[in-house]
Specification:
Length: about 350
């Protein structure tokens, strides 16, 4: 297909992000790469599919393929008109792979072709939903995508699960918009809290996170169960926000210990300390969170301990004199650190009295 309105990939990527990051808050570290020739792209695809144990028909050349290890979206250079919609299509999957325990466990298992795994096939529905929204956004910005829109509509007629997913996503988007004043009030009344004020636009990401909140449960079944859940409860289930509990579950002394550890870790990262200074604190946070989770039967804290362990394994092989900012793909590591610290703050506050500002 010859593009009717050629644009460089950087411009297209920014236009897609105006929807996926600014409007839908599907923030992640994925990025696109356009191959210089279709021949080289096909060679790359065949190599990837062979490693994944997938048979690729000679005439079944995809428009794109994502590398699940580094979240690079590899684009076929001849499908220029599809580049924007495809980048949008992969954003929910990248949120799943990068920001959920279930997604990270699938990546670490070495299992490829995760998009069609039986545990998370509904992600295809999320992707198609965002793909359609991306076409609308790019069309508003002057992209000529009538042919793309027509071809996609034909593909969606046979797309499994798409209609059910789209119905729920549209429903929850409307409910979240209608509940925005309630979210503000709950936040101001300190009945719903986190590291930032809740935003109704987070609902699509929250649905992905909530569906993946327990790696032992089926993503699809959990997602369908969210249809009748309130917006505040979905935000809480996503792990992004908490609700005040009536009784203190963790004694103040133990809560203060993890607070102190996390605050020091925050300070060390902010001061750009070397990895050798950060590792002991990260190991301490891992051990304390895991122990609290076991002692008080609190799965969210046990999961945070696992995330701290994963992060430790990522930075452990690096030269100890490096700072996080100097590591390859440092933005990803900083985001994972910040998310871990924010989530720890939220859950410790939820299960104990006092706040992070009470302890230094």
């Amino acid at each position: 297909m010859v593009a009717t309105m050629p644009r460089n990939i950087e411009e297209t990527f920014e236009d897609v992000l105006s929807l996926t990051n600014q409007d839908l808050l599907l923030n992640n570290s994925s990025r696109p790469h356009v191959w210089k020739s279709e021949e080289r792209f096909i060679e790359f695809v065949k190599g990837m599919t062979k490693k994944a144990g997938i048979e690729l028909e000679e005439d079944d050349i995809p428009r794109a393929m994502i590398n699940e290890d580094d979240l690079i979206i590899h684009l076929n250079p001849i499908d220029v008109d599809w580049h924007g919609p495809i980048i949008g299509y992969y954003q929910p999957l990248c949120v799943f792979l990068e920001r959920t325990i279930m997604g990270r466990e699938l990546r670490e298992s070495g299992k490829k072709n995760i998009l069609y795994d039986k545990k998370c096939y509904f992600l295809d529905g999320f992707g198609r939903f965002v793909e359609e929204k991306t076409i609308e956004r790019l069309s508003e910005r002057g992209y000529k995508l009538d042919v793309v829109k027509y071809e996609l509509s034909k593909e969606l007629k046979s797309a499994p699960y798409y209609k059910d997913v789209k119905k729920i996503l549209n429903q929850k988007w409307k409910e979240s918009y209608d509940a925005r004043n309630d979210l503000d009030k709950l936040f101001l009344d300190k009945l719903l809290y986190g590291s930032k004020k809740p935003n109704y636009k987070e609902i699509i990401a929250a649905l992905i996170l909530a569906s993946s909140s327990d790696s032992t449960k089926d993503f699809n079944k959990t997602f369908l169960e969210l249809e009748n859940m309130t917006i505040p409860d979905i935000f809480v289930k996503s792990g992004s926000y908490g609700k005040i509990v009536e009784n203190e579950l963790i004694p103040r002394e133990e809560a203060d210990a993890i607070r102190s550890c996390v605050l020091n870790l925050m300070a060390y990262i902010g001061d750009e300390k070397q990895i050798r200074d950060i590792k002991p604190l990260l190991k301490e946070a891992e051990e304390q969170l895991s122990q609290l989770g076991k002692d008080y039967d609190l799965n969210p804290l046990d999961s945070l301990g696992k995330r701290a362990s994963e992060l430790y394994k990522m930075i452990d092989p690096q030269p100890t004199k490096l700072r996080i900012e100097e590591m390859p793909d440092s933005k990803t590591y900083l985001m994972l650190f910040q998310t871990l610290l924010d989530d720890t703050e939220m859950w410790i506050n939820r299960y104990s009295k006092g706040g992070f500002n009470d302890t230094v």
